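input
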Amino acid sequence: MDVCTLGDLLDVVGGPALRLHTAPAGQGVPVTEAVLHDGSTSLPRLPGALLLAVGVPAAQAGPLLRAAARAAMSGVVVRGADGPVEQAEAQGVALLSVAPDAAWHHVHLLLASAIAARHADTVSADSGLGDLFALADAIATATGGATAVEDPRQRILAYSTVPGQPVDEDRKQGILGRQVPASAENTEQYRRLFAADRPLRLPALSDADLPRLAMPVRAGGETLGSVWVIDGGALAPDAEDTLAQGASTAALLLLRARAARELARHRGSELLRRLLDGTAADAATAAARVGLAGPARVAAFVLDSAASVPDAERTALRLLDVVRLQCEARYGRHAGVLVDGVVYAVLPGSEERHKRLAEDIVARAAQALRVPVRAALGEVVADADGLADSRADADLVLRVLDADLPVASVDEVRPRVTLLRLAEVMGERRELNAGAWRRVLAYDAAHGTEYARTLVCWFDAGCDMAGAARLLAVHPNTCRYRLRQLQPLAGVDLDDPDERLVLWLQLRVLAGLSPATP
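output
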């Protein structure tokens, strides 16, 4: 069995849900289970356990840390961020925290599920379905009829393989296609079945078919599926009781399979989130667990901010579903996650078809959601270590997209994103945004002149007076006069090439001026 480590646990449920404050023994220490603190008894020796400090204020967890160390536990989880970090380091025990309002039973369930799921590198989406096949065989043996377990959409999840039991053509076709053949008669039988609360005997649909004994599978009022037994004329006298018990067991197995799928999705999303923000403890391992290897690029999809979206949060989740579905159809898996309203997907390889896929997703999403969608493609990177950079590229591209350019890669808009990034850097540094350009703009604002635009046109024309005059739609002498007047007014030396370059950058990047600016 593959042992869960503290780093594995943080990769799955870290971030807002679980915060690490210190790990004196490193993140490679094994975590065997999550246990709730019981203040009425002393701690048993549980090597590798993670202790949840129920009923103990975070600031008063020092004695509990010492007790956990004596019990060979890996760490202690407190509620709130003011736990005794120094004492945890002194005891060699990891200290973690959850939100002050987190429910301990929810935290325990989340951690226990994550630890249990670590027995493999990934959690199979079909986890629990192997047990359903065993259950189908058990029901078939006990009732005397071939058995199938279905989901609410009449897809066959499992079927029995007990030799010698009679079957009909409907069962054969259903197993081959993993889907019950559709018919009006079938629809009516399912309607009756899902309205029942006990095993139901259903007649054969044709002379070539056999009757069925069926039972809906429910949990908490929710229909999870159904179990069907073929009645070849020799069912056991207690077949109905056996089927009812089998349906109850099937409900537990289906709930477990659903939990495994949800955990796998949560785990994959958290790992991908960490890869994209550059906080994964081991990028290569995290990438392998979500099925990524080799070159890849990040694609970002977002709802058009100019569109009116009544429920933006729900629509963004629907966009995530569209992106995942299309990526799964193209690559056989979905590595997608929703972060702050943006859907990110990792597209493997260095294909030119990445943009065509993004365009297809944008078209399909706009049609399904009735909202315009934009998509940005970051740089192709060699491996998982570069995904955070590719995500940063995609974020920049999103900021320069518009209705005329809804999809683009970073290479296609490199000048735009470079100027955008330059504006951010220059705007944050005092020494880069100070200088004569401010005096020029201030003079224009006070006197209604166009010195700043005249400078930009002159620079863009390669310091050619006739070219600048054409851009300004004025006589070259007018342009020449303005530049001559400007130098003493703003204190600039236009004969200095360095000063010209800096002034051009500041006016173009910081002031946002261009020859086309009115």
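quick obs: The first strand starts at residue 19 and ends at 22.
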